[in-house]
Automatic annotation (TrEMBL), chains A, B:
Gene3D superfamilies with a match to the protein in the record: 3.40.50.450
Domain Smf/DprA SLOG: 113-323
UniProt superkingdom: Bacteria
Gene: dprA
Region called Disordered, residue ranges: 1-38
Protein name: DNA-processing protein DprA
Length: 414, 414
């Protein structure tokens, strides 16, 4: 799963590693294998670099994470072409950073830190170039990469109308029923309605935060974000404890746009952040969609402006899927698995064995028959769908034709 | 104003005229000049041919109206390639026709019959090819050609929602305030709201009927259609007294589409007549526009389907005008007159003299100062706008820069 772009990072990490033995403050790192040094350096960098900083991203690409981090700790020359004031500011921040403590904090939350090159890294984020996240802090059971393969962003106004909330909730549920993940920003209004609609349909939803994964914002969404962490995924570029800022909200939107196959705007005033997300999606070659509304509402104006330009009008989840499902380059076609069955983990294998050869059954029956917790079952089934083993039909699941033969999978056979 | 296409008709009429002296039933026609014979034949044909019959339209183009009419009266060979059953049916209809009586009936209603080649003929109807109307029966004061130069069609569902009626009324008023004529079909729902909104703003509105101009349909719109006849224009392809039929409604829509620079659909279910009008407009190279609505309404579905295809999303009269006003080939630019002032009629001249050299005034003051009835004043001012002498600013009117010099127009000068 290592992309070509990651290779220099790894090499940089290995070649620079011995030089770090002289630094008391990084004791213990040198004992780890190169990928772990890489991971620690990236974790540290998420606390020092602001999301979306493509100047620092270029340093990271050229130097590799370990050398860049060492440089920010004052060990070695500053990055080539770096401004003095910027370097001084970053070095001041770097002094107090303890990536081990951040990684421990994430683990305590049941979370993890996912880096470029990891199996779970969503490679479509590489489209952000030097503004690609340094790494992603993740809470939740599911595999982020697999969920994101079939995902759509639903965004819109915080102060949405009843109509906007209704539409967002209906689209979230409809996308879930069609086996698509719904990505949003956990904000009030359209974001919240989209997450809730997806959760209510037992579907996969991903909240991308502009703070650390443990810093709940807005506080009114404490319960909702808790449910997403249980049933879905919470992800953030910033390390645990980090607070959101205005620019972090803006940069968060680029992750939502890049992670998904398309962005749907439900209600948005002119010059709103949701429009910026949609335009970013268009720049990244993703689908840009808008749900129209009454022309008498100011919250329709931004969406309608988008629909007069780059966006396609969508009125239902079926229309969204018809559009974003038309490209087959990110996810395997719904015709059977592309991965050998032998490579699946034991839980996935157990779930596949609980599915009948013909016909569809409820996730709750699959959970019971396989002896797996319902939430684990649901998260895993959406991963298996992304891998082409199963498909969702409304609220039920069925095996896809090729699921038996792939990797020699047989059930009840001789 | 005679187009090249009309010339053969005229010649055909003159050359065939003497031969008609032997027909008792057409007594008196031969005494008229050729254009009058032509006009009488066309008036007769509107009672015999169904609107939109492009087979008969091809006969008309090849034979001219007088020869075709004679042929349908059994005088001469049937049109080349005509089916026997069709000819027999048309001849049966032709027996009882008295175009003189129809023209007299129109005159009694304060109406007239406008033919291709007449100064008042809207030449954009020629885009319909052989399906061009044979002629148009017209009620109302204004000059149809001038009003139609700057016109937009507003169409939509008969059983529209409050939202649709509100939007249609607002668009009608907004278009009128910007000096545009609103064309619709006088039906219940969106059509009625569009006419009413335009009338309420003192604007020019044209109702295209699928019956004779004196046959009010629907009967619930008796008062509305009466007001349109007073303040606007009522036009029809069918002669006085004719009833509407399903196919006549469909054919009426092609006239709405062809007459205007663009068609706006306000609310429409899937597979509705309004969508057919909009698609016809697109085929004719006119602008096709749709006003979006809540995706939760079935009456938005047709419009949204259109917006996913050929139509442009519009949310206000300003956006409609921005689009349709961008082509300058039909109407003179709003920079001054293209016609010498000497060629204007006395009423128009009087109205221009009542306008101040600078600044805008209400139509009611222009009417008072010039001693002209308000309704005549309003109708004539929109004609003068189409000719480039004046422009409307909200509810007021002002002279355009070149209005003084054109044709040596001076006021109060030596």
């Amino acid at each position: 799963m290592t992309s070509l772009e990651d290779a220099p990072d790894r090499e940089g990490a290995s070649s620079h590693l011995p030089a770090r033995q002289d630094r008391g403050s990084t004791e213990g790192r040198e004992a780890r294998p190169a990928p772990e040094a890489d991971r620690l350096a990236r974790a540290a960098l998420t606390r020092v670099l602001e999301p979306g900083d493509d100047v620092a991203g270029a340093w990271l690409r050229r130097m590799g994470p370990v050398a860049l981090w060492r440089s920010l700790l004052g060990d070695g020359d500053p990055p080539e072409g770096a401004g003095e004031a910027k370097i001084a500011g970053l070095r001041l921040r770097a002094e107090a950073v303890s990536p081990e403590a951040d990684l421990d904090a994430a683990t305590a939350l049941g979370g993890r830190f996912v880096c470029p090159g990891d199996e779970e890294w969503p490679q479509q984020l590489d489209d952000l170039g030097d503004a690609r996240p340094v790494g992603l802090w993740v809470r939740g059971r599911a595999n982020l990469r697999l969920w994101a393969l079939r995902s759509v962003a639903l965004v819109g106004a915080r102060a949405c109308t009843e109509y906007g909330a209704h539409v967002a909730g209906t689209l979230g549920a409809g996308l879930a029923e069609r086996g698509w993940s719904v990505v949003s920003g956990a904000a009030y209004g359209v974001d919240g309605a989209a997450h809730r609609g997806t959760l209510a349909a037992g579907g996969p939803t991903v909240a991308v935060l502009a703070s650390g994964v443990d810093h709940i914002y807005p506080s009114g969404h404490t319960e909702l974000i808790g449910r997403i962490a249980e049933q879905g995924l919470i992800i953030a570029e910033l390390p645990p404890g980090a607070h959101p800022t205005a620019s972090r909200f803006i940069q968060r939107n680029r992750v939502i746009a890049a992670l998904t196959r398309g962005t749907v705007v439900v209600e948005a005033a002119l010059r709103s952040g949701s429009l910026a997300t949609a335009r970013r999606a268009a720049e990244l070659g993703r689908f840009t969609m808008g749900v129209p509304g009454p022309v008498t509402s100011g919250l329709s104006a931004g969406v309608h402006q988008l629909l007069r330009g780059e966006a396609v009008l969508v009125a239902s989840a079926a229309e969204v899927v018809e559009l974003v499902g038309s490209i087959g380059d990110l996810a395997p076609a719904a015709r059977g698995p592309v991965l050998a069955r032998d490579l699946l983990d034991p839980v996935a294998t157990r779930l596949l064995e609980a599915l009948p050869l013909r016909g569809a059954i409820d996730a709750s029956k699959i959970a019971r028959d396989s002896g797996t917790a319902l939430e684990v079952t649901q998260a895993k089934l959406f991963e298996l769908q992304a891998l082409g083993f199963v498909q969702r039909c409304g609220t039920r699941w069925e095996l896809l034709p090729g699921a038996h033969s792939a990797g020699g999978y047989r059930r009840g056979g001789p």
